[in-house]
Design brief:
Rossmann fold; alpha+beta; elongated; Alpha-Beta Plaits; 24% helix; 6-stranded mixed β-sheet; Ubiquitin-like (UB roll)
């Protein structure tokens, strides 16, 4: 395998890669602004310039300046192909002088907004200013002022912070294909802006905020809400659609503040849709169900979990005793995890060996929408329809679809007791479902109130995907695990824990604690062999030196 040496570190590479990409793949530290692996190369920021030497086959493979010509020329590592045997130096006096010069020019008109800038703490300009900049500014004239602009429904543009890396412009042209952003003007009046009457309003617009290496493009939803160094990042999976996009849930003290993409080249690359980025708000909806409820003389009243479990257990046992096996059913929502589905199926089967198992309604919105950059927005608005079915099949029975479930339950059927789970971010209950459940003892497990929870005999508050661990199977049949980000809202429980508790309440086993990893071991097969886990990142150590006083 070919190798190059970057600042004394040997780096192997495969295929046609640029020097900078090889360095980043190997963890070597090379400064860069305009370069991004998902965008075209423009080599405009010039901070990645380095002195490069390569073996010359015409001179016994001796190292000579590259490209051939007058020696000592700095080359952009983002635009220079890596060749076997190359030696790259970014710490030579000439390279360091270039880095300092670039940083000085970038900061000429840059305002000292760090104390109030949302990007502070994750800003490349801050980091590189510390690593490569000068200790003092030599610029004494007035800085050029640029306005703050409202460029779209989700994004603010602070023009005076922009360093003209053009990442956002290339994104709207090459990835989203919408082309709302462009570079206008020249010299110190050069600026990013939208075309007149065409705001930045595409389904992927929030990605430009992630791309911006400084604080020029900011998310309206996150603006001034939290300092980034207080946030904890938890690896998770899209819990809104069937895409299976890898995301990071960023939270502090039990509250989610934002969702950002987590790079996975096999799924979503570097991007997520705005639907995923902002669709988590129902997690903190003030209307969330927080306490069990049960009907007493036709009126729903709050109760504790033991009372709710006791009511369900007694009714389920009496229904099976009176009507025989096959008189219970469970409808498992595709918003739940594979582990939740398996435990719910096993629970109902423990009480009724012939209980009907079904997958809940699978929302769809139009057709899948591909973008020029390869990203796809899926029309299916449920994260785990395939995983729920697969997990229920592990119980060893036929799994019904939603329409078949309604037909089996409707009217004077043998089924007299039903567990229905929700977890959808919007009202999902239909008139047909309400009609099918008439006259049935209904247990509703959901996160938001709706017509079903108003009518159900017992209501149990469930958990959203950010409040528990589990596994989702996306539209490409890829099984991926996600981790719990925040504690479950008060008095609510994960559906898997509810299922385990109901098993004990129906005298079919001992109380157990929900453990997603242990449930996957019970499921076995692909849930152990083929599941994809988040890649653990090494802890980043501070570059500040501490001394003992």
């Amino acid at each position: 395998m070919p190798k190059i040496t970057i600042d004394g570190q040997e780096c192997e590479f495969d295929g046609k890669q640029m020097i900078l990409q090889v360095a980043l793949d190997q963890g070597a530290k090379l400064p860069h602004y305009c370069y991004h692996p998902g965008l075209s190369v423009v080599a405009s920021c010039r901070i990645c310039l380095a002195e490069v030497f390569a073996p010359n086959p015409k001179n016994d493979n001796k190292l000579e300046p590259w490209p051939p010509g007058p020696g000592g020329k700095l080359v952009p590592t983002c635009q220079s192909p890596a060749l076997d045997g190359m030696v790259v130096n970014t710490q030579t006096p000439k390279a360091i002088a270039n880095q300092k010069t670039v940083m000085e020019l970038l900061l000429v008109n840059h305002p000292l907004d760090c104390p109030v800038c949302d990007q502070a703490g994750e800003c490349s300009l801050q980091d590189y200013s510390y690593d490569y900049g000068r200790a003092q500014s030599r610029f004494e004239e007035d800085k050029a002022k640029q306005p703050k602009k409202d460029v779209g429904p989700n994004v603010w543009l602070y023009s005076d912070r922009c360093i003209m890396c053009s990442r956002c412009v290339r994104f709207t042209r090459e990835v989203s294909g919408t082309g709302e952003l462009a570079v206008f003007g020249r010299g110190h009046t050069e600026e990013i802006d939208v075309f007149p009457g065409k705001p930045l309003d595409n389904e992927l617009s929030g990605n430009v905020v992630d791309l911006c290496p400084v604080g020029a493009l900011l998310d309206k939803d996150f603006l001034f809400s939290q300092r980034v160094w207080f946030l904890t990042k938890t690896p998770s999976i899209d819990g809104i659609t069937a895409s299976g996009d890898n995301i990071s849930v960023e939270h502090n003290e039990g509250q989610v503040y934002r969702v950002k993409p987590r790079t996975n080249m096999e799924v979503n690359k570097w991007w997520i849709s705005d639907e995923i980025r902002y669709g988590w708000k129902f997690v903190q909806d003030p209307k969330r169900l927080r306490s069990p409820m049960r009907k007493q003389h036709g009126v729903a009243e709050e109760c504790d979990w033991n009372q709710a479990y006791k009511t369900i257990g007694e009714r389920f046992k009496s229904i099976v005793a009176e009507h025989g096996t096959g008189s219970l059913a469970v409808m498992v929502s595709p918003m739940l995890s594979c582990e939740d589905a398996y435990l719910l199926g096993r629970m109902i089967r423990a009480v009724d060996s012939d209980a009907v198992l079904s997958v809940g309604p699978i929302p769809r919105d139009g057709q899948d929408k591909p973008f020029p950059g390869g990203y796809v927005i899926h029309a299916e608005k449920a994260p785990n329809a395939r995983g729920v079915r697969r997990a229920l099949e592990q119980v060893g029975v036929v799994v019904r679809g939603y329409d078949e479930f309604q037909s089996l339950v409707s009217g004077d059927s043998k089924i007299k007791g039903v567990v229905v789970t929700g977890g959808y971010p919007s009202d999902w209950v239909t008139d047909d479902l309400m009609h099918a459940l008439e006259g049935k003892f209904t247990v509703a497990v959901d996160v938001l109130p709706n017509r079903l929870t108003d009518r159900a005999d017992v209501v149990l508050p469930g958990a959203t995907w950010v409040e528990k661990s589990g596994t989702f199977e996306n539209a490409s049949n890829r099984l991926q695990t996600f981790m719990q980000a925040i504690p479950v809202i008060e008095l609510a429980k994960p559906e898997g824990q509810i299922a385990l508790d109901l098993v004990a309440a129906c005298d079919q086993g001992e109380r157990a604690i929900y453990d997603a990893a242990a449930v996957r071991e019970q499921l076995g097969g692909p849930f152990v062999a083929d599941v994809h886990h988040p890649v653990e990142k090494q802890r980043v150590e501070a570059d500040m030196e501490y001394v003992e006083l």
